[in-house]
Recover the amino acids of this structure.
């Protein structure tokens, strides 16, 4: 990661500094954190390190629409401002960061691969070989592999092996969850970051990051879905037996609700956003017809404000929210992981804060729904503790769970940092050594 001091001196091995960047459609946030090895905590298993935030900067996002960079100059400017603010607060300079990726028509696929062991014990190299064999199948033209994760191993046909290292057998098999995205949006996001004189350490799919931050252990283990509702996109991830098994995204989010309101009430976008936050709800209330909301119409300065019943506003919001939730329900049932999720759904992301959202989701999805906030991070300012910062927190958790993922299969991809002796490999090595 962004190291303090040299690469191999004792100090940097003990506590690394990690910088993450969440480039969204409504805000760009940059967080600088120190990772310190921790004693085994009971609440968040699998976290090997304590995360202490030392710098944070966030900016209104420009030049990004539904997670895609549509204006390089404006996107670069927003990224620069957010990173500058975080650097100033942390008192250090950042050179490379972990970034999230939402756009690019994310697609989850499952592959399996087997290799011959010839009766000897499974070691690190065998794991690398079988993972490489699984990931190779996913390298298609114009698409990039974001994640290639082992979901489960099998030894001589016996499935459900969690960690085969040290076991004996003839054939080692792996079921892999591979998440791919289109190359172009990925490259353009990287370009906007490079133009700010920063390099991309690793790109993480937004649904993966959001799930890591918002789900608790029992949910990860028993199976749950995390729905991350952003400004321009909504992503969904499914975790089961502690593993990320499915991810998807749809280009609809909170900004679309604002746009619908602005059109439906013929008012400005700023006024519509204010109305949504102050008076908006995804559920009709009993007093909606009596409550009046004041609206400033677009046009001449001197025009008198209009008063409309709140129910008109609720109807517009509700239509868009229900459509979004129905799309998600459809994606979830098509994914084949509907049963894995059971009744457990966690909503997170800025747009999940709309009044009545959990109830609306409960009704449309027919499952239990709670709003998830990022867990287990010290030093976040009050304003950044809400669901809107889940993805940024998930990006900080990621390096702690990435050890199985760093393997040379990605040498073919541009993100050669993982396991070809690149930075992230050093990071997971450092995480293993210091713990």
């Amino acid at each position: 990661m962004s190291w303090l001091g040299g690469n191999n001196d004792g100090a940097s091995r003990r506590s690394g500094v990690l910088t993450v960047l969440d480039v969204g459609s409504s805000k760009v946030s940059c967080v600088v954190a120190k990772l310190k090895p921790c004693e085994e905590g009971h609440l968040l298993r699998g976290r090997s390190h304590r995360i202490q935030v030392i710098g944070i900067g966030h900016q209104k996002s420009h030049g990004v629409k539904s997670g895609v960079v549509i204006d390089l100059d404006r996107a670069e400017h927003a990224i620069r401002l957010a990173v500058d603010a975080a650097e100033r607060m942390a008192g250090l300079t950042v050179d490379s960061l972990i970034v999230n990726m939402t756009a690019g028509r994310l697609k989850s696929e499952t592959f399996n691969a087997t290799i011959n062991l010839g009766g000897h014990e499974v070691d690190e190299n065998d794991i690398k070989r079988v993972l490489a064999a699984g990931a190779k199948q996913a390298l298609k033209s114009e698409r990039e592999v974001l994640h290639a994760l082992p979901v489960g191993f099998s030894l001589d046909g016996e499935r459900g092996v969690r960690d085969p290292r040290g076991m004996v057998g003839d054939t080692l098999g792996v079921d892999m969850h591979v998440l791919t995205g289109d190359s172009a949006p990925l490259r353009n996001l990287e370009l906007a970051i490079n133009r700010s004189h920063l390099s991309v350490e690793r790109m993480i799919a937004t649904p993966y990051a959001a799930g890591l931050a918002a789900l608790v252990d029992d949910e990860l283990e028993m199976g749950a879905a995390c729905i991350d509702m952003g400004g321009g996109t909504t992503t969904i991830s499914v975790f089961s037996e502690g593993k990320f098994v499915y991810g998807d995204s749809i280009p609809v989010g909170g900004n679309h609700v604002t746009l619908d309101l602005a059109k439906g009430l013929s008012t400005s976008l700023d006024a519509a956003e204010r109305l949504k936050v102050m008076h908006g709800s995804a559920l009709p209330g009993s007093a909606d017809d009596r409550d009046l909301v004041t609206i400033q119409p677009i046009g001449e300065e001197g025009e008198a404000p209009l008063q409309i019943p709140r129910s008109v506003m609720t109807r517009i919001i509700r239509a868009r929210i229900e459509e979004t939730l129905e799309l998600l329900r459809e994606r979830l049932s098509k994914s084949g992981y509907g049963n894995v999720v059971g009744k457990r759904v966690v909503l997170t992301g800025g747009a999940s804060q709309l009044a009545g959202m959990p109830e609306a989701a409960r009704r449309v999805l027919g499952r239990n729904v709670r709003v998830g906030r990022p867990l287990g991070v010290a030093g976040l300012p009050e304003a950044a503790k809400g669901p809107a910062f889940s993805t940024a927190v998930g990006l900080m958790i990621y390096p702690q769970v990435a050890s199985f993922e760093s393997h040379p299969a990605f040498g073919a991809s541009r993100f050669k940092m993982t396991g070809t002796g690149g930075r992230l490999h050093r990071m997971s090595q450092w995480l293993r050594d210091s713990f």
In short: The radius of gyration is 23 Å. The longest helix spans residues 310-335. DSSP finds 13 helices and 19 strands in the chain. Residues 50 and 335 are 34 Å apart (CA to CA).
